[in-house]
TrEMBL record:
<dbReference type="InterPro" id="IPR020843">
    <property type="entry name" value="ER"/>
</dbReference>
<keyword id="KW-0560">Oxidoreductase</keyword>
<dbReference type="InterPro" id="IPR011032">
    <property type="entry name" value="GroES-like_sf"/>
</dbReference>
<dbReference type="Pfam" id="PF08240">
    <property type="entry name" value="ADH_N"/>
</dbReference>
<feature type="domain" description="Enoyl reductase (ER)">
    <location>
        <begin position="10"/>
        <end position="308"/>
    </location>
</feature>
<dbReference type="InterPro" id="IPR052733">
    <property type="entry name" value="Chloroplast_QOR"/>
</dbReference>
<protein>
    <submittedName>
        <fullName>NADP-dependent oxidoreductase</fullName>
        <ecNumber>1.-.-.-</ecNumber>
    </submittedName>
</protein>
<dbReference type="GO" id="GO:0016491">
    <property type="term" value="F:oxidoreductase activity"/>
</dbReference>
<dbReference type="InterPro" id="IPR036291">
    <property type="entry name" value="NAD(P)-bd_dom_sf"/>
</dbReference>
<dbReference type="InterPro" id="IPR013154">
    <property type="entry name" value="ADH-like_N"/>
</dbReference>
<dbReference type="Pfam" id="PF13602">
    <property type="entry name" value="ADH_zinc_N_2"/>
</dbReference>
């Protein structure tokens, strides 16, 4: 099979298309013929080795954690999935989506792709929606609470705005000037242009005293203090990145990432197929241009998800 491969840690430009043996599903695994994949920030750090201490990979390494395709074969002991079914999955560090075939664990990280959801829409869903839902869980927010989403125009951010609005939160969301209408359409009560506005100052103007929770998807480390300034005393900052455990005024921080509770991916896919959870695809590339897709994703502002179709 053809695969986009990193033979060692290095820059994105070092990726090569390589012929690899077709994978064979082991116990509890699915062999998926790929129809679409989606790109994520984690792909870059796995390829370059930036996170090798916490997230090492084995080479040759095939990137791509978001899988959408058709099951070609199932391994021993698999239940709930059958040959010929369309499936979506979050593959985690295992990755493998940027190849003609991928192995997927038949766990809660995979779900049957419902009729009406295209292959690309299915690929755009797992990491973005699962991560957004996990961060919303960590926030412990209740209907009527105010929430600021920093980095709202990307894949995780656009899902988080929608899920937070669906949960009854009053959402402030940051994006570029030309993202404002898009964010409002997702459910943001107050879109904020981060290019021309100080985010914390604007949030405090809109919500005097501070928001109940900030979801910061863009900053890490000491830089998080700038957005923590928008949180009310005793409130909470939630991030998929890493930083201080607490900030001034008793603002606490909670850090977490993608989780796959039983049935959640299927439930999110059901929302997507009815349009209650929009999957925005800002750019789509053919598989032959997958390396360019990764470099563009790393260097350009692209609204929503970047997908690769086969």
């Amino acid at each position: 099979m053809k695969a986009l491969v990193a033979h060692t840690y290095g820059p994105l430009e070092s990726l090569e298309f390589t012929d690899l043996p077709n994978p064979v599903p082991g116990p509890g695994q699915l062999l998926v013929r790929m129809e679409a994949a989606a790109l994520n920030a984690v792909d870059q750090v796995l390829i370059t080795g930036e996170a090798r201490g916490a997230l090492p990979v084995r080479h040759p390494f095939v990137p791509g954690v978001d899988v959408s395709g058709v099951i070609e074969a199932v391994g021993a002991g698999v239940t709930g999935f059958g040959t010929g079914e369309s499936v979506i999955a979050w593959n985690g560090v295992h990755s493998g989506a940027l190849a003609e075939y991928a192995l997927v664990n038949a766990t809660a990280a995979a779900a049957v792709r419902p009729f009406g959801l295209t292959a690309a829409q299915g690929a755009a869903l797992p990491t973005a929606a699962l991560t957004a839902a996990a961060l919303l869980d960590l926030a412990g927010a209740a209907a009527g609470d105010t929430a600021l989403v920093v980095g709202a125009s990307g894949g995780v951010g656009s899902s988080l705005v929608q899920l937070a609005d669906r949960a009854g939160l009053v959402v402030l969301a940051t994006g570029r000037n030309d993202d404002q209408e898009f964010l409002a359409g997702l459910g943001a009560r107050y879109p904020i242009d981060y290019q021309h506005t100080d985010i914390a100052e604007e949030a405090l103007r809109l919500v005097p005293g501070g928001v109940d929770v900030v979801f910061d998807l863009a900053n890490a480390g000491p830089a998080l203090a700038r957005t923590a300034a928008a949180v009310r005393g005793g409130g909470r900052l939630v991030s998929p990145l890493r930083g201080p455990a607490a900030f001034e005024r008793g603002v606490t921080a909670v850090y977490g990432g993608t989780t796959t509770p039983e049935g959640r991916l299927a439930s999110l896919a059901a929302l997507a197929v009815t349009g209650e959870l929009r999957t925005t695809i800002g750019a789509d590339y053919p598989f032959a241009e997958a390396r360019r897709a990764l470099t563009d994703f790393a260097t350009k502002h692209i609204r929503g998800k970047v997908t690769v179709t086969f």
